Every structure is written in C-alpha cells, then in structure tokens.
Amino acid sequence: MADPRIDRERMAASARKLRENTRPGEERGCRIVITGKGGVGKTTITAILAHMFAQKGFTTLAVDEDPQMNLPYALGIPRNGSDRIIPLTKNLDYIEEKTGARPGAGWGLMLTLNPDVSDVVERFGAKTPGGVNLLVMGTVEQAATGCLCPENTLLEAVIRYINLREDEVILMDTPAGVEHFGRTIARGFDQALVITDPTFSAVQVAGHAASLAKELGIKWVWLVINRVRSENDIRKVRELLGNAMDLFSGEFFLLYDENVIACEPDVRPVLNSASPFMENLVTLQASLEDPGIAPGDNSSV
C-alpha cells in the first residue's frame, strides 16, 4: 500500500519544480516609461534594466521612442550593424500599407486612423545580444506636434498595440523633456521612471514629468537620482522638488560609476559587476518587477 506521506512529498517536490521552471514573463508583465531631461542617463538605465529583466526569464521588449535612437547601441548592437535597424517612421511602405497614405504624398490624404499593427514587433523588431527584443520608433520630422499625418497615425497605433501585449516587460526610452506625455504617448503604461541627476534643470524637468505622469493615471511613479556622489546630492534633489516629492511612489539613487562611462555605449560589461551602482539597480529592478511591495530604502549613501 502506498505511503501517503511519500505521495505528499512527491507532490510538493513537483510543485516546487514547476514553480522553478515557470518563466516569470509567462505569468505577469509590466509597462515602464522612462523619462527625464536629456543627458541624465535614461538610455543607459533603460538598457541595463532590459538586460536584467531578460536575464530573469522575462520576455522583454525595449522600445526606442527617442529621436536620438541610441538604445540599440546601449543594448549591444554594434554600430556597424545598425544599418539593419530601420525606424518605423522610415518604413514608408509599411506606413502606407497600414494607414493608406504615404508620408510626404501631400494633403488631402485618406488616413486609416486605427490601423492594425499587430505584426509590427514580428516584422520590425530586432533581437539584441542577451535576448532583449528591440523596436525603434523613430520621429516625425514636422514642426507641428500631434499632426494628423501617416507617421503619427502609425506611431500612436503602435503604442496602443504595445499596451495590449500580455505577459511581457516593456520599457520605453522616451525623448528628452516631457513632450511625449503631452501627446499621451505613455497612456496605458503602469509605471514611470523619472530619471534626474543632481542639477537644477534636470530636477525641474523631473518634477514636471512626475506631475504629468500622475495626470495620465500612471499608478507607480519612481524617482531615480543618477550620478550621486554624496548625501548632499540626494538632499539637494529633495529640496528642489519640495512638495513634488509627494508625487513619487518611491525613490532610488544610483552612485556615480566611472565604469559606466568607460564601457559606453554598450552597457553589458557592467551587468555582472559588484559595484554599488549595480547593487542599487538590482533593488530598483526588483521593485519594478513587483511594485505592489514597498521598495527598499536605498535613498541614503
């Protein structure tokens, strides 16, 4: 006769094995928009976090919405191989196929305002070293923001589609400033990383970005103070933000690290380092993975 204790132990062992072998990305995902003033380290932090999520087994999509389009290099795509990555706004045939109008064809075009772009990642996504999926959006080279043109129609449709993708971690590197919030480009994202360094102008942009993120209904808005050299840097940012600190769900700091600059643009060499910079990014990544749990306090040097 079978021993019920042995059966229970086998069932428990099988359950543990199942949990261990279940990819986190198949159970849950999150959408994170990264914003802040130009030059504060948005692209570098986006690339490192994307690699960290991928290393933990998440299906990870990094979206480059910054017109500078430096995210491919930060993720490890060599500069001599970047010619195979064509931004969506330069894929004229695809734009015409989806919207019914070709960019630059003139006024009076009949646009499809809700095009089906469910094939966009499969057709134009690139696999980066380390297994991160990359989608480069590009920019609309027109003076009028929010113009009713084929390029904008396509980009907005792609953002809507990305918001519907399930069981995936999506990180969007955005342009400098806060204009993308004004275009509601971040609507549907549940987390915002507001990156700043300890300079006055960067902190002012951070406060504005946090306010707009809250207006859009983004549930978790995190403050990330980059390139911290001392407690005074953290104190300075808090004082400059003043009451705007209440907009943030939590705050993190990243210590200044020469190695990050030395390996630029490719972030991969710093991923396995035991530096304080990477230790704090591990804490940040864990909070993004499970934002319902209060983040650990890493706000003092």
Question: What does it look like?
Answer:
With 301 residues, this protein is of the alpha/beta class. It has a single domain, classed as Rossmann fold, CATH 3.40.50. 38% of the residues lie in helices and 15% in strands. It has eleven helices and eight strands. Strand 7 (220-228), helix 9 (231-241) and strand 8 (250-255) form a beta-alpha-beta unit. Helix 2 (42-55) crosses helix 11 (276-289) and helix 4 (92-99) packs across helix 6. Residues 1-8, 14-27 and 142-146 have low confidence and may be disordered.
Provide key terms for this protein:
301 residues, Rossmann fold, eight-stranded mixed sheet
Question: Can you give me a brief rundown of this structure?
Answer:
The protein has 301 residues and is an alpha/beta fold.
Note the gap between the termini: 62 Å
The chain-level mean pLDDT equals 84
Number of helices: 11
CATH level-four homologous superfamily name: P-loop containing nucleotide triphosphate hydrolases
What does the secondary structure layout of this molecule look like, with pairings?
Blueprint: H1 4-21, E1 30-36, H2 42-55, E2 60-64, H3 71-74, H4 92-99, H5 120-124, E3 126-127, E4 133-136, H6 150-164, E5 169-173, H7 179-182, E6 191-196, H8 200-215, E7 220-228, H9 231-241, E8 250-255, H10 258-262, H11 276-289
